[in-house]
Amino acid sequence: xxxxxxxxxxxxxxSFVLPAAIYMILMVIFPIIYNIAISFRDINLMNxxxxxxxxxxxxxxxxxxxxxxxxxxxxNTLVFTIWCLIFQFPIGFAMAMxxxxxxxxxxxxxxxxxxxxxIPMVAVAGIFKYMFNADIGIINRMLMGLHLIQEPxxxxxxxxxxxxxxxxxxxxxGVPFNMILLAxxxxxLPEDIYEAAIIDGATPVQRFFKITVPLLKPAMLSVLTLGxxxxxxxxxLIYVMTSGGPGSSTEVLSSxxxxxxxxxxxxxxxxxxxxxLFILLMIVGLFYIYLVNKEDKESKGGRR
Length: 304
Fold this sequence. Notes:
By secondary structure, the protein is an all-alpha fold. It has helices spanning 2-38, 45-50, 59-66, 68-99, 106-113, 115-118, 121-131, 138-145, 159-187, 191-199, 204-232, 236-241, 253-263, 267-303, and strands spanning 41-42, 54-55. It has a two-stranded antiparallel ribbon with strand order 1-2. α1 (2-38) packs across α14 (267-303) and α4 runs antiparallel to α11. The two termini are 46 Å apart.
């Protein structure tokens, strides 16, 4: 009887685990392994069709690291990611603090502000590309109407303004994500701590820096890490708005991998750049795990 029950439980366990495991193997693990494998072979459009690619070891990576375009795209990726986080995290935090307060219409307004996150990135890129259009875009019309500029700015035609445009678009898209996660974390904070602080005479600023920020530290760390990963690997926004241009001023690692693979048809170089992007993000993920484990150890040590 026990053996039958054990067998039944095992089959039940496998029925839940196997579909997810098969999906992970086919859709995640196999593509990663295949991508790593082709980065060590010389694969282009000609020999890919004929199936005659040769093993070249690390030659592809040596070529990639000698290419100035890799370092330009890496710098652009870091600039794009850092500036997006600088704006979207504080704005999202401020909105989370605002909508965590009880006032008429707060839940509805919070839901409305979450709409940008639900819009597909391709649609967001198309909207902002139209808005930053030099001739008919609403950005130039507003600035000229306010007499801040005298003539239309060619936003997407110059490097600095093109980077600013894609940063603004990504910030608009990312703020609701930061807001909703931080707002959710704020609802879990114990109110009795704030009541005790008010009785002791703590000011709102003191309560914010001495209670809210320390208690939200794990949530803030998670939001920053996820925001960094999502922003660092952005492709569709860059591709639709600028395609990495003008020149290579907005070329990021993800768009560079696409350019090598599907514009120049050098699949080995594209795979190598994608692997570099994967390794960088994996380092960020491991660093996040290290910080979380360190925080857990410190909190457990403090309780002892």
